[in-house]
Design goal:
globular; two-stranded antiparallel sheet
């Protein structure tokens, strides 16, 4: 875990690791994971992070907010194949702005880096209106998990 945390030296972060197995329906005709499925892996990583740290999508919604993605990047290093064991390290990077920034690292069972990615999510109300100030519940959550 130390190697991964060095990427974020000097920043307040939280990390969670989630293991998964590549499913047949996630692969293409060559038996490798289709690149579009990495978006699903990022989502799985964010959801596991949210459950682990108490900031699930349901929790955000119950507070009257949504967090749509406004930016997403992915960089592929090597393929995953059907039935491979893998894991995703999801890192929340604290920011002063009213947004949620996540960095993802996907590794295979040999601990080789497969893919890196990031997403940025902003806060909106449930009607889709952008919220420019950090919601109070989010500030309280940051305090609870030791980011402030």
């Amino acid at each position: 875990m130390t190697r991964k945390k060095e990427l974020f030296k000097g920043k307040n972060i939280l990390q969670h690791t989630e293991h998964f197995k590549v499913k047949f329906n996630q692969t293409d005709a060559l038996g490798i994971v289709w690149h579009g499925n990495y978006v699903d892996y990022f989502e799985d990583g964010r959801e596991a992070f949210g459950r682990h740290f108490g900031i699930s999508y349901k929790h955000v919604q119950d507070q009257g907010f949504a967090t749509p993605i406004v930016k997403m990047l992915s960089e592929h290093k090597r393929p995953l194949k059907y039935a491979d064991d893998a894991y995703i390290v999801t890192t929340f990077i604290d920011d002063l702005a009213a947004k949620m920034c996540f960095h993802f690292q996907i590794f295979n069972a040999q601990h080789e880096l497969v893919c890196i990615g990031e997403t940025v999510q902003v806060f909106t109300d449930l009607q889709g209106n952008l919220i420019l100030n950090t919601p109070e519940f989010f500030e309280l959550w940051k305090q609870k998990v030791g980011l402030k």
